[in-house]
Specification:
The chain is built from no helices and ten strands. The chain is an all-beta fold and 110 residues long.
């Protein structure tokens, strides 16, 4: 699944069999990335483990891993100073109760 244009809050519908919902929010003024995860009933997916990496699609440079902390019920957040403006891919991996989901979202840093 590729969901492009992460500017502000975006929602990505995961496979129906999982029923998870993922919301990402990029806060450029604070360099903060936030990810909220809920189950098919809209309840927080508290046992989730989330990892993210920023990848520059136009250049061959190392990806940037971001350490995420739990900041609320099923809300994860971290900070990253991206070294260049332009397009970035945000690779998200979520694992919970033996299920795994991976997605890439494109964002544009002005």
């Amino acid at each position: 699944i590729r969901d492009r244009d992460v500017t502000g809050v975006q929602t990505c519908a995961l496979p129906i069999s999982l029923g998870w919902q993922v919301k990402t929010a990029w806060r450029p003024e604070t360099s903060r990335i936030e990810i909220d995860i809920s189950d098919r009933n809209g309840q927080p997916l508290d046992r989730a483990r989330v990892t993210i990496e920023f990848v520059r699609p136009a250049e061959k440079r190392a990806s940037i891993s971001v350490a995420l902390g739990v900041v609320g019920p099923a809300r994860f957040a971290g900070y990253v100073d991206l070294p260049a403006r332009g397009n970035w891919d945000l690779d998200i991996v979520i694992e919970s109760d033996g299920q795994r989901y991976a997605a890439t979202r494109r964002m544009f840093l002005k």
